[in-house]
Amino acid sequence: MTISSKSIANAERPRLFVGGRWSEPSGGTRADVLNPATSEVAGVAAFAAPSDVDAAVAAASASFASGVWSRAAPAERARVLRAAADILEAHLDELAHLMTSEMGVLLSYAQRVHIPNPIRTLRYYADYAEKFEYEEHRHDGTNGSLVSREPVGVVGAVTPWNGPLSNPVMKLAPALASGCSVVLKPAPDTPLSAYALAEALAWAGLPEGVLSVVPGGRDIGELVVTDPRVDKVAFTGSTAVGRRVMALCAERVARVTLELGGKSAAIVLPDADLGQLVPGLLPMSFMLSGQACIAQTRVLVPSAREAEVVEALAAAYSAQRVGDPLDPGTDLGPLINEAQRDRVESYVETGKAEGARVVVGGRRPVFGSTLDNGWFAAPTLLAGVRNSMRVASEEIFGPVVSVITYGSEEEAVAMANDSVYGLSGSVWSADAERALAVARRIRTGMVSVNGHPQAFGSPLGGFKQSGLGRELGPEGFAAYLEPRSIAVGPAA
Question: Ranges for the Aldehyde dehydrogenase domain (predicted)?
Answer without folding.
Answer: 22-485
